[in-house]
């Protein structure tokens, strides 16, 4: 190449990309060597979400939230972990359902550990694992712990600003009481059975409406599941739709409220914990 095309001529932004996969190697290398380089790693699943939401819902939501947060605090977003730990009947309908393809615990831990250790070994200072699939959490925790051991990182005495750090969260941890009250005026059913329900459906209606088919959504009572886990599962205990609560009352407006509140508070929290600049970013659309 002898000349650099002006990206504006192709309608592209001149700002440096938020997604790591869109960076060239040398830009990545220089960025990673910076004192505050932070990578957000979204995690999701390939999992049925009833007749109205796409199979990639969990990774789509965690990735989209990660990009919004990353652009506010100057963090970059890695490609998501797109397969998750086995869907469980009491939180995802079950691993037996069509459209759900999962990793076992050893495979998820190994994949996540390699990715995390890889970024840290290349000089990335901080990792934020942003989970979007309920069943993943403890295995991501294990992967983070092993990845830090792999690179020889020890316990830090003070705020984790100067030594390699991994933060781990599920995005729904950031939904505030006020937002919950607005999104669930008739009472909140609980995060475990929020599968294909109002939260995910509303967020998808706001962020990716072209992937949602509300004309296919089915109204039904919340799943009534025992307090124990039974293996193999009794498949008839999962509602016919595959959703554990119905998407009744979902709306793009609720999705916007959830998205804006969660991304703002998450960005603020990460910036404070990691010593990053929190900037206000105006929505472009
Ligand atoms: Zn989901
Ligand atoms: Mn899930």
Written overview of the protein:
The protein is of the alpha/beta class and 285 residues long. It has a single domain (18-272), classed as Creatininase (Rossmann fold, 3-Layer(aba) Sandwich), CATH 3.40.50.10310. It contains eight helices and four strands; from the N terminus they run H-E-H-E-H-H-E-H-E-H-H-H. A four-stranded parallel sheet has the order 2-1-3-4. Strand 3, helix 5 (137-150) and strand 4 form a beta-alpha-beta unit. Helix 2 (57-73) crosses helix 7, helix 4 (105-121) crosses helix 5 (137-150) and helix 7 packs across helix 8. The longest helix is centred in the last third of the chain and has 23 residues, at 252-274. It is globular and about 50 Å long. The chain starts with 24 loop residues before the first helix and ends in an 11-residue tail after the last helix. Residues 4-13 have low confidence and may be disordered. Manganese (II) ion (MN) is lined by residues 45, 47, 58, 92, 133-134.
Structure, briefly:
With 285 residues, this protein is of the alpha/beta class. The chain contains eight helices and four strands.
